[in-house]
Amino acid sequence: MNDIMKLDNRLSVERSDPGRRAVRFNNLLKAKEAIPAGLARKAPPKLPELSELDVVRHYTGLSKINFSVDTHFYPLGSCTMKYNPKINEEAAALEGFANLHPLAHDKTSQGTLEMLYDLEKRLCALCAMDAFTLQPAAGAHSEFTGLLIAKAYFAKRGENQRVDIICPDSAHGTNPATASMLGFNTINIKSGPDGRVDPADLKAHLGDRTAVLMLTVPNTLGIFESRIEEIAEMAHKAGALVYMDGANFNALIGIVKPGDLGVDIMHINAHKTFSTPHGGGGPGAGGIGVKRRLEEFLPVPRVKLEGGTYRTDFCCPDSIGKVKAFFGNVGVLTRAYAYLLMHSKKELAQIAENAILNANYMKSRLQSIYPAHSGDYCMHECVLTPPAALAAKGLKTLDIAKRLLDYGFHAPTIYFPLIVHEAIMIEPTETESRETMDSFVDTMLKINDEGAADPQLLKDAPHTMPVKRLDEVQAARQPNLRW
Amino acid sequence: MFIANTQKDREEMLRTIGVSSIKDLLKQVPEKFLYPAFNLPETSLDEQQTARRMKTLAAANTPHLSFLGAGAYERYIPAAVKSLISRGEYLTAYTPYQAEASQGILQTIYEYQSSVCALYAMDCANASMYDGASAFGEAVRAAVRITGKKKVLCQETLNPQYLTALKTYFANSSDYQFITIPAKDGFMDTDKLAALLGPDTACVAFQTPNFFGLMEDAPKISEAAHKSGALVVAAADPASLGLFIPPGDYGADFAVGEGQSLGLPLSYGGPYLGIFACKKEYVRQMPGRIAGMTKDKDGKRGFVLTLQAREQHIRRDKAASNICSNEALCALSATIYLALLGPEGLKELARANAAAAAFTAEKLSDVKGAKLKFKGTFFNEFVLEIKGDAAELREKVLKKEHIDIGLPLKDLYPALGPGALLVCATETKTEADILRLVKALGENI
After folding, report:
1. The model's pTM
2. Which end of chain A is more exposed for a tag (fewer CB within 10 A), N or C?
3. CATH code at B65-76+343-444
């Protein structure tokens, strides 16, 4: 990094100059202002005082010390960092969408309602589900909604004794966390040696206390539950529902319909499969698809089409209610919808096909040096481990990840899934080119050589980022969370 | 679409892998599930057609002058906010898992947390929740967790959407008691509050301005709650805090808010921004991501995600919450908005809002057949009582004049009668807009 690009990480308040202004609001409407003395703010908040140029330069500067899909290859496994088409942004920013109040009259909201209705319909077709809600704000929020639906379903059937949620040990942390938020017990089942659920082991845990079997398909090892039909049947025989965590739906879109596999409830993540940007941590948008017998429990409002007019329907007596105010993250869903419009049936299949091809290509080029956890072909992502020779020198996955940053690659997901020691989880997505993947693979191979020759080089990495490795222990022991 | 591989790439990649077709990679999927029939379009739109289709849909949301509020507020969004948050470096990043390569985002989260703390006068804040309602639900959950008590007192004039969402956050057990603190003349009845408080109360949860736009006597409510040992969960509209007392000043234990008020588009309900702040003794009970300032190994300032032992990816079923993705870009937007306004701009914003609502209320109370339902200080919005049925009037004026006069309250608060209407006017309304509303009501009541 040359001098001109040197790091300036002063805080906005440290650039502040008392009296400096940017945006003003002229108050032209003179009305009586009456604030009771006890309710008036006494001291102004400590916010920065800056000119508009100061603000623009500050936040433009900060944006530059940041990796993103637009600037770097970002093979973060399970997060599906695919390209986010620019037309999506333009669509969501259209005034007609952006300025629509959530309580606007149905008559003035026909465009948004039609979009949501059609989006639900297309998602039903893609997933072989009978109904969808788009209210959840993210994946974890969808899980919450899905399990609430399951709870309501069992309550209505008088089966309140069903308090167990079974999930494999490879599950996302959100699965058990959601289960416990809703008062369920999580029962972890061990993955078999091939990384899949062992039906015999599952059988031992299924019973009349089982509410839901939660599966991620493909699972977090990037492999398909080949015996899912049998597994779902077992769960159904025990009276349980099958929930599919659809975080990895990018691997199935257009080629497999989860509803065909025996799934009763599933979620989608707009920012994973449907190309909406992740914004450095959100907003996402979720969605829950269900089979017919669960439809009555979906949150309100539902969007209905009657006589050529769309309307919001709040009258669903068995609905779980609401998981957030208003409808959902409609601005995000608008982007997902634009993306779907640009894909025919065949083109949707190409998403999954190329995601799978790219992941297997990277796996096949890397696995002789970075052993793969599974010998099978993978779906949309692969889980590798560090070379034994590097491990023998005390090098860890973390060191390899940090060294990748020096070469301009965001690191893959590391140390997840938890069941793989020193996991390196790579997901290239379908939008990356072969050159980019080759360049990443070559760098991984080079890092292996570097580690063998000079382990300290990796241990001290990154060397070229705005900061070196950060003291996380101090950050947690003496939290400094604000100015 | 958006796929880089050419046919030649695919062939060469398949050769490298050692298979002849993509289908060979799918052997783990039982054949019978592969390539089923899909009831989806055979053709796709190109970019231009997509743009056209989206424009047509957007235009089908027919333009009208709107006086709706009730938890979502029309705000002017400064151009610099839109320009900065559309930078791909922010827009297309993930949660900052690799701190050294994500210092920009981490610092903006730190600045966001700091701005929230400054605005709400609280000790600490998280990186955001989904929206005001989910932040409110999580705060009440935290209060229940901390106190180990199961009785929650909620104000009658809480946004009904918050109340419904709150109840779903407590679906884990039927032991929780949600008790309504009745309202009197639109405000929380503090005598009734005192009678309801007891040693078994976990918290008093309320919002100010309340659903009717009225500024509650938050210091008095807070004092009563604390006297009985209950915690205080206060939801405050951030835009109101340019003029009104912040939750920290009256000792709120948890302060939350709907950050949409800080310059986010309405977008039919989301994405919005759940503001969540608390006293420092409860920092480890906070849900969600938190960024902290630390040093790198050369002693240079840097930022990381911290206190992660509360979170789902570490604690799994013992986590404080299941939240993973939050509303980071919306938080960034609010941070930039607040930096552009500064303390002075925020005061001007609050004043312009208060004035718009007050001006509207003054003019409307002169309309024959309309009067203000409640007396007292309000912000953003107020309840108007009209002769006749407010819902019918809304339909009529919308059709004739293309004005949405506000939210009829008879379904939500039947006791207010059929004529109750919640009318909102923010800084986006001009005198001409307001006079159009006044004229329309005058002619149609």
Report:
1. 0.97
2. N
3. 3.90.1150.10
